[in-house]
Design a protein that fits this description.
This protein has four helices and 13 strands. It is mainly beta.
Length: 247
């Protein structure tokens, strides 16, 4: 982190991009990145007060069942019920309280409720696949959902995406916003997935995989996974530069 002095004399933080861990803007194995990555040199935009003090996203952004993707319809969705929880941390390992965490995912059959998803798998009328919550005073978040299924996509021959959940976090300002994917341990599709493998550092890839946590399961109701999210610093969770065009 460096400090930038604005014209008004404010001293604001600047964060350099971690080129060693985060995926390159153009990842040739991930074919659609060739159509979306910048073709001209990036232009530096200094951070001003708006970027480092906003957004103001409070608890009123979340409805009663937004954190529970299994309780948003008249009946429960099909699939394996799971709990996903953890902490949101800053670069110093301190909890980030009262920040908005959003998720979106495929259903248990590996299909998104989206007009662009033409995978011939069934839609679930009781599963929309989106949720949100606020972290508590200790930086904790918690979602109840259905374990997503793998799904095919047309990036390469017989290509399948590993099961994953998309996360969006705002941290304490726009400059800390993170969009990433959480994966599940032991997935056999990791080796052939160009999105997962566009993260060049093995340790950084491992930080995208959650941990099964028997202690926090709810007996006879749901298995549980733990996943802490670090917004900046050497232990930062890897972010995406683009969302997938198939999601």
């Amino acid at each position: 982190m460096t400090i930038n002095e604005t014209r008004s004399g404010l001293m604001l933080p600047e964060f350099a991009r971690d080129e060693a861990s985060h995926p390159p803007l153009d990842s040739p194995a991930y074919h659609s990145s060739a159509l979306r990555h910048p073709k001209q040199p990036l232009q530096y935009l200094p951070h001003y007060l708006t970027e480092v003090t906003g957004p103001l996203l409070g608890q009123d952004r979340c409805g009663e069942h937004d954190h529970d993707l299994t309780a948003q319809h008249d009946d429960e969705p099909l699939g394996e019920r799971i709990i996903v929880s953890g902490k949101v941390l800053d670069s110093n390992g301190k909890p980030v309280p009262n920040t908005l965490v959003e998720v979106w995912q495929a259903n248990a059959a590996g299909r998104y409720l989206h007009h662009g998803d033409r995978h011939p798998a069934p839609l679930d009328p009781n599963f929309s696949g989106t949720g949100r919550c606020m972290t508590d005073a200790e930086g904790n978040y918690r979602f109840v959902t259905i374990k997503p299924g793998a799904y095919p996509w047309k990036n390469h021959d017989n290509a399948w995406r590993p099961a994953h959940i998309h996360f969006s976090l705002f941290g304490q300002s726009f400059t800390q916003r993170l969009i990433t994917q959480m994966y599940f341990p032991g997935d056999p599709l990791f080796y052939q997935d160009p999105i997962f493998n566009s993260v060049r550092d093995e340790a950084a890839r491992e930080r995208m995989i959650c941990d099964f946590d028997l202690e926090s399961t709810v007996p006879e109701w749901a298995l549980s996974y733990k996943w802490d999210i670090v917004l900046r610093g050497p232990q930062a969770t890897v972010f995406e530069d683009d969302e997938e065009d198939d999601d």
